[in-house]
Design a protein that fits this description.
With 341 residues, this protein is of the alpha+beta class. It is built from eleven helices and 15 strands. The longest helix has 22 residues, at 313-334. The protein is globular and about 65 Å long. The structure holds adenosine-5'-diphosphate and magnesium ion. Residues 35, 39-40, 43, 64, 66-69, 77, 83-85, 99-106, 146 line the site of adenosine-5'-diphosphate.
Amino acid sequence: RQAAAARPIQALPDQLISQIAAGEVVERPSAVVKELLENALDAGATQISVRLEEGGVKRIAITDNGRGIPPEQMPLALARHATSKISSLHDLENVGTLGFRGEALASIASVAAVTLTSRTADAPHAWELVGSHEGTVAPSSGALGTTIDVQDLYFNTPARRKFLKSEQTEFGHCAEVVRRIALARPDVSFSLTHNGRTIDHWNVCDMARRSAQILGEGFAEARLPIDETAGPLRIHGYTGLPTASKARADGQFFYVNGRFVRDKVLVHAVKAAYQDVLHGDRFPSYALALELDPALVDVNVHPSKIEVRFRDSRAVHQFVFHAVQRALAQTSATSHGSVPS
Ligand code: ADP
Ligand code: MG
């Protein structure tokens, strides 16, 4: 290993900065799917379609019926550190949108061939931007809303492309991201196709129906509703009876202010609530949403925002633990301690 040769310090070119960021923001196709779905939801879409080819590596095209992007702002949508979602530290600390970093589209555009097509309500037709923020915005056709078409992911970063797994594995990760997001938003319809085949389609419905569709009828028959509020904290959703537990942790969905998270505090709180009713090697299934003042939780911990930090994690742990424990206790009371099969 050699010391770096003495070279002058230079500012990196924009494209390279985005490619470096892409390593974190768009680790694999499913991360692109997540970013694009979150943008569609932030734009108020009620109908979203996801079309994938070859596990998303060949193509990820997401169409929404959200508010669209005016033509003069389309280059900015692909520019780095440009966002319509926050404009101050105060906004950041109270963020209510899924996105706010303004780097997803720029990162994606730096490692794939991107076409952005969008039409706002007051525009007579759609507009299209190909490539990057340096491209030209040209008239196009298309319905109200936005389509982002991402092709040939990592075509220009072969080292990263090598880390991709098989088409089926990458597709599986993409489908999981769609399920996660769809589970939290029964008020939005989602469709997913892979290589032209329809894989999933969920119409607008309520949480009871959506959770049955995504977690299975087995979960629907063995779920306990939870809805509790204490001070600034609210938890709602469903937690499964021990009969709905699994040998793997793949039925666990926790959302914080609408965002799917993997958080040790939350996972532990639920696990602790099940301690008396579930064998240690089983994993409870649940679809739970925690809502709290955005100022009480920091979502800006990691670019993918899958981790969060609570200002008072002890209070959150207690709250979640007791809410789940109470839900479980109620059934054992009504069923006289026995677990319905
Ligand atoms: P962020 O979501 O953090 O703001 P992105 O790079 O994901 O950053 O998107 C940049 C901007 O492009 C967003 O702030 C938004 O204004 C616009 N945008 C992206 N996707 C959509 C969409 N599907 N519909 C409407 N506007 C969008
Ligand atoms: Mg975004």
